[in-house]
Design brief:
Number of helices: 4
Helix content: 40-55%
Distance between the termini: 92 Å
Strand content: under 5%
Oligomer: single chain
Structural class: mainly alpha
Order of helices and strands: HHHH
Shape: elongated
Amino acid sequence: MPEPLVALSPRIDDTAADARSLERMGRIEPQPIPAPPELPTPVPADDQEAVELAAALADAGIDATASDKTAVRALASLDAATVETVKKWLKTKKKDPPSK
């Protein structure tokens, strides 16, 4: 007759545990949470270009939403030539659609 199975206690092995698990087991102290990174301060020229882009949007009859304002800030951080090109695109009058 085979021998009866005996339950073994679970093996405790901390070598593969992550820090949160080790904290919960009381093996290490709680780890500090790092401070969020500081955001770069905007360049004054970017602020001026953002104002100009927002004005170009308004002149084009586009009501800027929150996501539009985020996009304007991102565009304003690009080089001046790109910002000028975007402003020209916004100022270009729409052509009549071709007749069928």
